[in-house]
Write a structure and sequence with these properties.
By secondary structure, the protein is mainly alpha-helical. It contains six helices and two strands; from the N terminus they run αβααααβα. It has two domains: about 30 residues; about 120 residues, Orthogonal Bundle (Cytochrome Bc1 Complex, Chain D, domain 2), CATH 1.10.760.10. Bound molecules: heme C.
Length: about 160
Amino acid sequence: MKRGEWGIVIGIGVVVVAGMAWKSFQTTQSDKKDFKIPFYSTASPDLQARAAELMRRENCRQCHTLWSTRDPLQAVPAPPLDGMGSLKDEAWLYTYLSAPRPQDIVPTRLKPEYRHPSLAYLPDAERRSLAQYLASLKVEDWYLAEVKKVEFEKLTGKDYVP
Ligand code: HEC
């Protein structure tokens, strides 16, 4: 090859490498936290399957958002369950789900038909599974303040002032 030809080959090589570097830079950028879903569960696949079945049967999504989805026909302003395990621990959740009057624990501002129903009638094992699963629903630290804000606003109907 002539010298000029080598120049062209090297030139093309530089462009290709620079292009690859730019692409990988963009990919790392889009991996940044703002584009990631901040919610995750630490539950075993077995617990996830049992809880999913219970929550389907008990219609939790009629009022609550979970994995960012809810029943689109319902408009009850209940706090989302996403990230619940970073707000409340398993013992608290078990007590809440077992309470004959949950509103004694979390006060309500809603009409009776929109309030969280007592699940005290469920078998103990089912309430335990639900509590264990809800406690496994975590949120990344960088999004925790947002989850607290939404919970406060849903429960009180007021703006959150940190
Ligand atoms: C009829 C609507 C409705 C259904 C169905 C419902 N909830 Fe609720 N839930 C609420 C509302 C509203 C609140 C807030 C307290 C209140 O107003 O009673 C709440 C509160 C909660 C809380 C406490 C939230 C907090 O931030 O303190 C948990 C946990 C919860 N619900 C879990 C569940 C689970 C699990 C199911 C299904 C087994 C379920 N809920 C079914 C409406 C509902």
